[in-house]
């Protein structure tokens, strides 16, 4: 699973979307050969959206659950079809639960101490969050010492900085609201969505 993420390089993040909007975007992502996505669990309908996407696209796409903060959330997300977990923090409880149910867990960290702790808990890919304020130079500085760690940058990733983040050494990025315009999704402007996805892919090759 983690190899798929680092091969795809872009993890689209769906947060607070209505089911039909999420299905439309997932279809566009699949057409653009971006076959991994995250559904953040911090909205009231998140589990419903996660389950629906997993049923509709799970055969061809890997649908992950984001903002997994507790063992219960991990188990509930697994029951809804999640194939990997992400979080904004490092949790030993979630790490152990993910290990027990054999689902990859990508914890969130920021400082070198947090990053190393996440690695000691068994994380093979660690989410650097939020990256917006610190930028690519921070990634480069961290990897100067922790050069065996694989990083996923999230929280402020857009077309203006995505190439620099990869040049600094990240293996993948998570992209939320800046991936495509919300009105394109709402208006079902498929061609505009696909063109933006193409541009993002060109930046990370």
TrEMBL record:
EC assignment: 4.1.2.14, 4.1.3.42
UniProt pathway: Carbohydrate acid metabolism
Keywords assigned by UniProt, alphabetized: Carbohydrate metabolism, Lyase
Subunit and partners: Homotrimer.
Matches recorded under InterPro entries: Aldlse_KDPG_KHG, Aldolase_TIM
Molecular function GO terms recorded: (4S)-4-hydroxy-2-oxoglutarate aldolase activity; 2-dehydro-3-deoxy-phosphogluconate aldolase activity
Domain of life: Bacteria
Protein name, UniProt field: 2-dehydro-3-deoxyphosphogluconate aldolase/(4S)-4-hydroxy-2-oxoglutarate aldolase
Family: Belongs to the KHG/KDPG aldolase family.
Keyword Lyase: yes
Enzyme class: lyase
């Amino acid at each position: 699973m983690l190899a798929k993420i680092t091969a795809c390089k872009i993890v689209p993040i769906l947060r607070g979307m209505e089911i039909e909007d999420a299905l439309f975007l997932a279809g566009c992502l699949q057409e653009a050969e971006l076959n991994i996505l995250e559904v953040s669990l911090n909205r009231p309908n998140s589990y419903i959206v996660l389950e629906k996407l997993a049923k509709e696209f799970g055969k061809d796409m890997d649908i992950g659950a984001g903002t997994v903060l507790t063992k219960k959330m991990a188990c509930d997300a697994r029951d809804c079809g999640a194939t990997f977990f992400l979080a904004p923090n490092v949790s030993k409880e979630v790490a152990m639960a993910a290990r027990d149910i054999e689902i990859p867990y990508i914890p969130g960290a920021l400082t070198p101490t947090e990053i190393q702790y996440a690695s000691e808990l068994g994380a093979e890919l660690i989410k650097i969050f939020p990256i917006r304020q610190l930028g690519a130079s921070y990634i480069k500085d961290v990897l100067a010492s922790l050069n065996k760690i694989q990083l996923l940058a999230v929280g402020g990733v857009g077309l203006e900085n995505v190439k620099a983040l990869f040049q600094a050494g990240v293996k993948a990025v998570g992209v939320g609201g800046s991936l495509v315009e919300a009105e394109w999704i709402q208006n079902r402007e498929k061609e505009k969505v696909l063109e933006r996805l193409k541009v993002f892919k060109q930046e990370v090759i």
